[in-house]
Amino acid sequence: MKQSFQSLVIWFVGIFLTVLLFIVMALVSIILFPFDRKRKVTHAQCFWWTDAVTALNPYWDVKVEGLDNIDHKKTYVAVSNHQSLADIVLLYKTKMQFKWVAKESLFKIPVLGWNMLLAKHIQLRRGEFSSIKKVYREAAQWLRRGISVVFFPEGTRSSSLDIGEFQNGAFKLAIKEKVPILPILIEGTRDAIPKGSWRFTTKISCLIKVLPPIDTSVYLPSDYVRLRDLARQQLCGN
C-alpha cells in the first residue's frame, strides 16, 4: 500500500513538474526570443527540473561524477551509452548547454516532446537517409554556434547492461568540426522507470560519469573508426 501511494505521488508530481517546465520554457522562449536565439536560457530551465524530479523520487539514488571534465567555454560532441528514457532526465545534471539528437517519436510525446521542440533539439527520422543528412547538417551548425551536441551512438537503447556497437556519425562529425569528443557514462537507469507497471518497487543507484574529453585535432577524417573505438573503450572500461 505504501509503495502504491508513493508511486502515485511520484508520477503526479513528476507530471506536474514537467507541465510547469513547459509553461516556464514557453514563457522564456517568447519573452527572450530576440535575445536568446540559441535557446540557452530556455534549455537552462531543465536544470532545476532534473534536480526536482530526482529529489522527489525516493527510489532513485543519483550520483554525478567528473563534472570537472567539462569546460563550459568549450563545445563538444558528447557521446553516451543509452539505457532508458531516464537518461534524458539525468543528463541535464551535467548543466551543459547542448542539443540532443533524438528520434522523431520522442517529440510527439505530450509535454515532454513539446519541451524538446521549444529547446530546438534535433529530430531524427530513422531509416531515412535524407533525415540523417539533415541531422548532421543541423548538428554541425549548432557546433559552429558554440552549442554542444549529444549523441547516443548505439542508435537505440541497449537491451542489456553491455554497451552496444557504436555508429560512426558522431565521430566523423567531431573530426570534421574539430571539436573534442566528450564521453559520458550512464549506469543504473535501465530499471529506473518501471516496465509493465506504474509502481516503483526497487531502489535504483544511478551514475552519470563525465570522462575526460578526447582531443580530435590529431585525427584525420579517415581515422573516425579509431576515434569511435577509443570512445567506446573508455566507456566500457569505467
Helix content bin: 40-55%
Strand order of the largest sheet: 1-7-6-2-5-3-4
Largest sheet, strands/sense/barrel:
7 strands, mixed
How far apart are the termini? Answer: 38 Å
CATH topology: Glycerol-3-phosphate (1)-acyltransferase
* Tally of DSSP helical segments: 7
Rg computed from alpha carbons, rounded to a whole number of angstroms: 18 Å
Write down the secondary-structure element order.
Answer: HHEEHEHEHEHEEH
Question: What shape does the CA trace take?
Answer: globular
Residue fraction in strands:
15-25%
**Counted beta strands:** 7
Going by CATH, the architecture would be 3-Layer(aba) Sandwich
- Name of the CATH class: Alpha Beta
Which stretches of 5+ consecutive residues score pLDDT under 50? none
Number of domains: 1
What class do helices, strands and sheet pairing give?
A: alpha/beta
| Overall average pLDDT | 91
